[in-house]
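It would be a great kindness if you could assist me with a short task in structural biology. The full record is reproduced below for your convenience:
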Amino acid sequence: MHTRSLRIRARPAKPSDSIALTSNKAQPSPRKVKAGPARSKTKAVALGDLSQSLGYRIRRAQLWVFREVSQRLAPFDTSPAQFSVLSVIDANPGVNQLAIAQVLSIERAGLGRMVDHLERRGLLTRAESSINRRYYVLYLTREGAELLGRLKPIIAESEKSLAKKMGSRAYKQFQRTLSIFLEG
């Protein structure tokens, strides 16, 4: 979280004056910028060996997919992570929060906040587990199931867009290749 620091600025004392508080954001940057001819093009930054890194390429693909999905889900005030949580609950009614956190690799505290948000929106309900009272189990509400029903075709369109970008054959092969990471 970004916090703004305050600085006290003293002025010449007058009987009616008090100390004024100002934000650092209001102060001009002390850094000097050299004036020179305006550049019409920004020089591309070379990636060096990074461009051949599989991890880097996968990360770039992930960012593209995430941006694509986020844009499509934005009108529904839903994030890709929220869609994932709703999907897991739909496939596993009564699943506990810890299991969702583990399967989706979400920190428990972050998932707790997300579940609170989804519950406030009326998309899921949370109840104490009858097996272990330390856990909560989750169920979609009717509104949650309806929203998920509207979102699934949107996600399918995003997948089609990705398949088009990659080519159908490469997309299918990539899906098969990446499936080894679903095992743990």
Q: What stands out?
A: The longest strand covers residues 124-128. The helical segments are 54-73, 80-91, 97-104, 108-120, 142-166, 168-178. The CA atoms of residues 46 and 52 lie 12 Å apart. The chain has a mean pLDDT of 83.
